[in-house]
């Protein structure tokens, strides 16, 4: 049987002794280098992060040179997104802006339409009934005149009727007044009627009126009185006043009741009060 050996051993045997020793030393150095590489990786894994700053460098203030972010600062930090990121360029931006503007205009228009204050419409329905009494000792004619006002609220909110003030004049002389406070509240888009009675007394300075009203030969004892009525209303925005003026024919000789009013002239003024 012949002797077996490897090619490397044969080549080694052919080299001089000095070269063979150097070759064995190189092999041992390479093995040591590989072992040192593994040991160095393990050491680096256990070694903390160190930021090497030069003369013009600044240590990272967030991680403070540790390479890690403290857990208590997670909610306080802001991430930097590149300018070319698609998230900074949302799609349909113009469409969303136009829709937002249109919706805002529509909402403001609806709010202005429903909350814009409108004047309360006041219509004088005239005198409905008159009750007559005679004071023979003082030669006066005493009457109670009941009138009706129709009030319409065109607003989408309630309106308070603060007061109704009426004044009756005969031949430029005040013969009766009446004032009602905190009358009623008109619901939105509704209409109500307000009845009020004014007590008047005619005589004294005009005794001929008593003679005319008590004259039995006359069947109808009509006289003309001038009525001024002011209705003050208020809502959540402003206070306004409606003024009504009219001439009324009344029968001072007996109790009367009308189902329709008779007026010589009527005017209405809407005056906003600051």
Automatic annotation (TrEMBL):
Record field: compositional bias (Basic and acidic residues): 17-27
Residues annotated as signal peptide: none
Keywords of the record: Membrane, Transmembrane, Transmembrane helix
Keyword Nucleotide-binding: no
Localisation: Endomembrane system
Bias type Polar residues, positions: 1-13
Region (Disordered): 1-35
Domain Transmembrane protein 106 N-terminal: 33-94
Parts of the chain that traverse the membrane: 95-116
The Transmembrane protein 106 C-terminal domain, residue ranges: 117-257
A GO cellular component entry from the record: endomembrane system
Main location group: membrane
Similarity comment: Belongs to the TMEM106 family.
PANTHER family according to UniProt: TRANSMEMBRANE PROTEIN 106B (PTHR28556), TRANSMEMBRANE PROTEIN 106C (PTHR28556:SF5)
UniProt-recorded name of the protein: Transmembrane protein 106C
Species this chain originates from: Perca fluviatilis
Lineage: Eukaryota, Metazoa, Chordata, Craniata, Vertebrata
